[in-house]
């Protein structure tokens, strides 16, 4: 009883804060909603990039697919706002998962460098194709339907939706990592050939992991498209230079291959960005590049990885069992 | 697809496209050759490859704007980029040479963003070009035009590649580079200073990119965001050709140039970037399917 109370207390505190925050600080709702989007980005990147050891630079592809599919459904289906949104998000999510399954069959056979550069190409190819496809607005982008209600309600509505998706993502991933699936994708990260030799159907697990990632990204894409209100192919939907890079950076910053690491990384990154980056006056993206180099070269194990090395007892490891961090990534 | 009609009705036009494509392809092959060098010797995929090309272009552009002939830009860009390459090596790259793939990929990826955004801040996002004031050749009674600067770029690319081949084959340092590529540990035991070899390799690659960038700036256009396309193109070329296969790199480079020119003409110029990046995905998937034929038991 004592133990479970002590474990639940921090979670309860977080719950109170995230529910109270938008009501107390209505001016910052959009930023706070974006924080949850960032958490989803980092968590979903970590499924494939951290837990499975496949560096993907193209996860933003699924985000964009979900966003465009949702917006097109809202535009063409002629439903009222909420039904349209629900149907749009559902179709966007389904399309993103389908795309992941279809592309995964080809791309996930690639390893290492080939996979990383292939996914990089995927994200940019999608942006360029979207920018020249007239049906979805080409380079001019798409405008999502207007929210029926005032702007305060709108931001609050999307804050709740983003929060709910983030929480569902977190607990789904926790459940998945705790079971056979988590062990399987960790085995793929540690030694894919051995895992396969042991009889693990690696390609199937890799595709499922990629689809899990796409599922939540597609869903978030639909929501963010409506939250932002305007879909630009290169800067919002398939925003490789911002969202695509951030998701990698946040996951590494917090500690890739852990559950809480991406959450912490996303929170720190997003808050720092909101607080300080306006001071940099256009040099933000330069700082972003520098930050990636510094973190990757000097701090690749991330905050949680570092903590686990220094204080293994916090993680329930005995000291002799405390192998963690950089040595594990393949 | 309406442009397909033009090609069918005027076959001479496809000769024009072919020549244009071959001339572009030589520069792609040159950049890919540099990437293959670093990949082979240091086992690093340099994602910042295209950004080095872009920097070389800006060196030439600065000289051009200062009134110097852009032809002097080729050696100058190579020298400046050699120094930048050394600087990058001693600041960042040496820390990632023997680290795992994750670190080397992401670190060079970070470098590419850093260089690209720095260029954007320093030079501005405008599209620029360094005009060389060369004329245009008319072939076959004027039905085919070849601008002389593209010919110069074509020949220049081969000269730079030729210098590199001779250097790697006959010079002492070149032999050390090849020895390190074959087996770094053995080379170290035999007294090769592998750190220096790595530094030289990376700097040489940067110099190659610099020369290529100078040719790009003179022949076409440069802007801060053109880097990634060159990285992806050279990666594609090396993947198709295989490491350490110079003839393959040249053929694949020229082939890519031709394919891209035709795609740009048929699909429209705005779809050319989409074509390049889609082609990358298609080539990689095709390659993985080829490998899959060996794996019949588990799927």
Question: Can you describe this structure?
Answer:
The complex is a heterodimer of chains A (330) and B (299). Chain A is mainly alpha-helical and 330 residues long. Chain A has a single domain, classed as ABC transporter involved in vitamin B12 uptake, BtuC. Helix content of chain A is 74%, strand content 1%. Chain A contains 14 helices and two strands; from the N terminus they run H-H-H-H-H-E-H-H-H-H-E-H-H-H-H-H. In chain A, strands 1-2 form a two-stranded antiparallel ribbon. In chain A, helix 4 (81-107) runs antiparallel to helix 9. Chain B is built from twelve helices and two strands; from the N terminus they run αααααββααααααα. Chain B is mainly α and 299 residues long. In chain B, helix 7 (172-182) crosses helix 9. Chain B has helices spanning 3-9, 12-42, 49-65, 70-96, 101-123, 148-170, 172-182, 184-189, 194-219, 227-241, 246-267, 272-292, and strands spanning 136-139, 144-147. A two-stranded antiparallel ribbon of chain B has the order 1-2. Chain B has a single domain, classed as ABC transporter involved in vitamin B12 uptake, BtuC, CATH 1.10.3470. At the A-B interface, helix 4, helix 5, helix 9, helix 11 and helix 13 of A face helix 4, helix 5, helix 10 and helix 12 of B.
């Amino acid at each position: 009883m004592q133990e479970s109370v002590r474990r639940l207390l921090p979670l309860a505190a977080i719950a109170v804060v995230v529910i109270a925050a938008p009501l107390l600080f209505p001016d910052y709702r959009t930023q706070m909603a974006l924080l949850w989007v960032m958490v989803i980005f980092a968590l979903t990147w970590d499924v494939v990039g951290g837990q499975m050891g496949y560096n993907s630079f193209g996860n933003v592809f699924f985000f964009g697919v979900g966003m465009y599919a949702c917006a097109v459904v809202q535009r063409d289906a002629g439903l009222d706002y909420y039904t349209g949104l629900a149907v749009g998000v559902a179709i966007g999510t389904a399309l993103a998962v389908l795309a992941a399954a279809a592309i995964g069959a080809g791309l996930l056979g690639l390893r290492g460098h080939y996979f990383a550069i292939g996914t990089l190409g995927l994200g940019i190819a999608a942006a360029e194709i979207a920018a020249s496809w007239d049906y979805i607005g080409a380079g001019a982008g798409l405008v999502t339907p207007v929210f029926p209600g005032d702007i305060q309600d709108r931001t609050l509505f999307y804050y709740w939706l983003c929060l709910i998706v983030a929480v569902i993502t977190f607990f789904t991933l926790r459940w998945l990592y705790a079971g056979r699936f988590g062990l399987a994708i960790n085995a793929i990260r540690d030694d894919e050939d051995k895992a396969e030799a042991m009889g693990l159907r690696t390609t199937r697990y890799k595709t499922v992991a990629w689809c899990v990632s796409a599922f939540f990204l597609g869903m978030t894409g639909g929501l963010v498209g409506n939250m932002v209100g305007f879909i630009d192919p290169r800067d919002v939907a398939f925003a490789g230079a911002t969202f695509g890079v951030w998701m990698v950076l946040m996951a590494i910053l917090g500690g890739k291959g852990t559950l809480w690491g991406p959450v912490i990384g996303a929170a720190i990154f997003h808050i720092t960005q909101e607080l300080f980056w306006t001071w940099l006056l256009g040099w933000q993206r330069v700082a972003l590049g520098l930050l990636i180099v510094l973190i990757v070269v000097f701090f690749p194990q991330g905050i949680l990885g570092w903590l686990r090395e220094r204080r293994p007892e916090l993680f329930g490891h005995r000291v002799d069992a405390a192998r963690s961090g950089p040595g594990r990534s393949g | 697809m309406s442009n397909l009609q033009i090609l069918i009705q005027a076959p001479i036009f496809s000769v024009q496209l072919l020549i244009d494509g071959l001339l572009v392809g030589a520069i792609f092959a040159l950049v890919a050759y540099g990437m293959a060098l670093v990949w082979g010797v240091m086992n690093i995929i340099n994602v910042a490859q295209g950004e080095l090309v872009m920097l070389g272009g800006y060196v030439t552009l600065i000289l051009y704007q200062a009134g110097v002939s852009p032809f002097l830009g080729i050696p100058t860009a190579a020298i400046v980029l050699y120094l930048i390459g050394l600087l990058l090596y001693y600041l960042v790259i040496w820390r990632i040479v023997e680290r795992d793939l994750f670190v080397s990929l992401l670190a060079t990826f970070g470098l590419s963003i850093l260089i690209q955004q720095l260029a954007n801040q320093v030079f501005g996002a405008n599209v620029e070009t360094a005009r060389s004031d060369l004329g245009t050749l008319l072939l076959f009674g004027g039905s085919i035009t070849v601008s002389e600067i593209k010919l110069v770029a074509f020949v220049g690319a081969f000269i730079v590649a030729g210098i590199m081949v001779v250097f790697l084959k006959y010079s002492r340092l070149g032999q050390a580079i090849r020895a390190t590529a074959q087996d770094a540990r053995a080379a170290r035991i035999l007294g090769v200073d592998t750190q220096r070899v790595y530094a030289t390799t990376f700097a040489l690659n940067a110099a190659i990119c610099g020369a290529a960038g100078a040719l790009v700036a003179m022949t076409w256009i440069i802007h801060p965001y053109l880097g990634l396309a060159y990285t992806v193109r050279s990666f594609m070329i090396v993947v198709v050709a295989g490491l350490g296969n110079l003839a393959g790199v040249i053929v694949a480079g020229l082939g890519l140039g031709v394919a891209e020119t035709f795609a740009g003409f048929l699909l429209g110029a705005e779809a050319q970037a989409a074509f390049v990046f889609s082609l990358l995905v298609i080539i990689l998937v095709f390659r993985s399917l080829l490998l899959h034929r060996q794996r019949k038991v588990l799927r």
